[in-house]
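Dataset card, provenance and construction

Sequences and ligand SMILES were collected as paired inputs. For each pair, a complete structure of the chain with the small molecule in place was predicted and serialized as structure tokens. The example below shows a pair involving calcium ion. Curators did not alter the output after generation; any descriptive sentences attached to a record were derived from the structure itself.
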Amino acid sequence: MKKFKIFITLACIVMISPMAFAQNWQPAGDNWIGKWWGLDLITDTGGFTTSAGVDYLAEGSGGLISNASVSTRDGAGKTTSAVVNLPDNGGSLAWSIVDINTEDQFNISTSHGLPDGTNVTWHGIIVVISPDERTTTMYPAHDDYAQIWLNGEQVYDESRWTGGVREFLTPTEINFKAGENFLHFKCGESGGADYVNLRFETTDTDLLIAPTLDNQFLDVLTPVEPKGKLAVRWADLKRQ
Ligand SMILES: [Ca+2]
Ligand SMILES: [Ca+2]
């Protein structure tokens, strides 16, 4: 009888929230986000003051994507095929699932296999699925200069490093739409420690974040056009 009740309860939960159970979403709340859809590091930037003023994504893709556009579904979708070609800043750069150690003061470097890079810039994208429209707070930690775009708009611009890998200077109010929200985090490093980190409000435990814990990114989303090219590319991504 007890087993039957558990079965019925689980069956009801699965029917009510199929998305929540279908994927191993990254947890939100007070968890620092460990998986990103990241670009290979931009190199030889000349330091964070310079790199903050350059849109490497637009420059390297001939305008196909940009800092702002990859914080939208359309632009994020194009990252699966857009080449970011920067001959003087690392060459032909590719996007992939990037794991950061959220306790490592050098996670910009170590997330891309370097011990301690200098004059590099990190780019990462996540999707946050919100059950409702809400105003909440994000807590970015970074070393050095961080810029963040959400749903096509820049929402953060802070040149000062924050003092530690899980320390923040400027908690920032943001608005989520119900459904998918795309966030792009860019961070320019000059020297010494280099880290990025982000979490939302501790009460935001109902947010769902991708890349998922099993390394799925855009292919976990409901395709706009099930038979369209984007959907095909997302499926291709899943197979890689
Ligand atoms: Ca630094
Ligand atoms: Ca460094």
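Derived descriptions for this record:
The longest strand covers residues 120-130.
Helices lie at 2-16, 18-22, 48-51, 56-61, 73-78, 107-110, 229-239.
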